[in-house]
Design brief:
This protein is of the alpha/beta class. Helix 4 crosses helix 12 and helix 5 crosses helix 9. Strand 6 and strand 7 form a beta hairpin. Helices cover 40% and strands 20% of the residues. Strands 8-7-6-9-10-11 form a six-stranded mixed sheet, with helices on both faces. A five-stranded mixed sheet has the order 3-2-1-4-5.
Length: 342
């Protein structure tokens, strides 16, 4: 199962690596819904997919790989596994619980790489072949989410409010963006916006404003275009933050795979120039191969689950991705961290 902030997807693979059952469901971030409800939603998806695959209800899966938003801590991951084993004893023989970034990464490669998520929220994770990891972001909308749909939407509201308050002049006319905000949230005044920010705050709905902003940017609105340029800078900085932790074994072929996950990447043309400009400020000793996944990241969760159960599921990673952009290495001073060469 792979789950982002708003929805989940499940795929059951047979011993030949072929899909025999699928299901979709609600988000399963246990920080928002609690571990018992998270486990219930997981079990519901598994049972629906088993029915589609013709698997008897009392037959447990060989392994269940869970790559879920919110599963970054080992302690709570074990708590979720225990809840599943106790409450749903016939669900699976073995479990692997990891963050949503791991499912995306393993859909594209079995040696590791980097995943940069820009959907409702944002997160960036690096995993080296030796299992060592590093991350940047993933702290939610109070502490982060730069470059995400929520952050772009929030910045649109903030820039408009600051301009109307005469607190900070917007870099471009606000009329079109303010009209989109009023249309999306069905409001007339700025005071009407307060319930959407506090009492009735709904992060996925707030983030959906980003779709309208993207269309406005494509239509030429300069304020909306500026919001996406800002997002491109933020996403590039997340990659740069993790480059000093990249091991030589991971890039010995000259490329670092960066798996780009989330709806904001569909607006790549709006992000591209500022993204590349920010990367070019730092010398990178290897290429960045930015790829989009063509299959559900639930496949990567399956691979993780089967590998942990010592069962190798056949897979062809080239069939799972398409190249979004290849950023070529440039010669200059090396990336350093704490005064030491990477």
């Amino acid at each position: 199962i792979f789950s982002g902030a708003t929805h989940s997807s499940l795929v059951i693979l047979d011993e030949g690596g072929q899909s025999v059952g699928t299901a979709r469901g609600l988000g399963t971030n246990h920080w928002g819904i609690g571990i018992p409800e998270c486990a219930r939603r997981i079990a519901d998806m598994v049972e629906r997919a088993k029915a589609e695959a013709g698997i008897p209800k009392d037959s447990a899966l060989t392994s269940l790989g869970l790559s879920l938003s919110g599963c970054e801590q080992e302690a709570t991951n074990k708590e979720l596994e225990q809840e599943l084993r106790t409450t749903f004893p016939n669900l699976s023989d073995s479990y692997t619980v990891s963050s949503d970034t791991m499912g995306s990464m393993y859909t594209a490669s079995d040696i590791g790489g980097m995943v940069l998520i820009s959907g409702t929220g944002s997160n960036c994770l690096l995993r080296n072949p030796d299992g060592s990891t590093a991350n940047c972001g993933g702290w939610g909308n109070f502490l982060g989410d730069e470059g995400s749909a929520w952050y772009i939407s929030y910045r649109a509201v903030k820039v408009v409010f600051d301009d109307l308050d005469n607190f900070a002049k917007a870099p471009a006319p606000i009329d079109k963006t303010w009209a989109l905000i009023k249309e999306h949230f069905k409001i007339e005044t700025r005071h009407d916006m307060l319930s959407h920010c506090y009492a009735k705050f709904d992060k996925p709905f707030f983030a959906d404003l980003c779709k309208k902003l993207s269309q406005s940017a494509e239509d030429g609105d300069e304020l909306a275009r500026g919001l996406f340029r800002e997002a491109g800078v933020h996403l590039a900085r997340m990659i740069l933050a993790l480059l000093p932790s990249v091991s030589k074994d991971l890039v010995k072929r000259g490329d670092l795979n960066v798996v780009c996950v989330g709806s904001v990447w569909t607006s790549w043309k709006l992000l591209q120039d500022s993204f590349i400009a920010e990367l070019s400020k730092t010398t990178i000793a290897f290429n960045l191969k930015m790829v989009r996944i063509t299959k559900s990241s639930a496949y990567g969760a399956c691979y993780l689950g089967s590998d942990s159960a010592d069962f190798h599921t056949p897979r062809n990673y080239e069939d799972n991705v398409t190249i979004l952009h290849l950023y070529k290495a440039r010669e200059a001073k090396p990336i350093t961290r704490n005064g030491e060469s990477a």
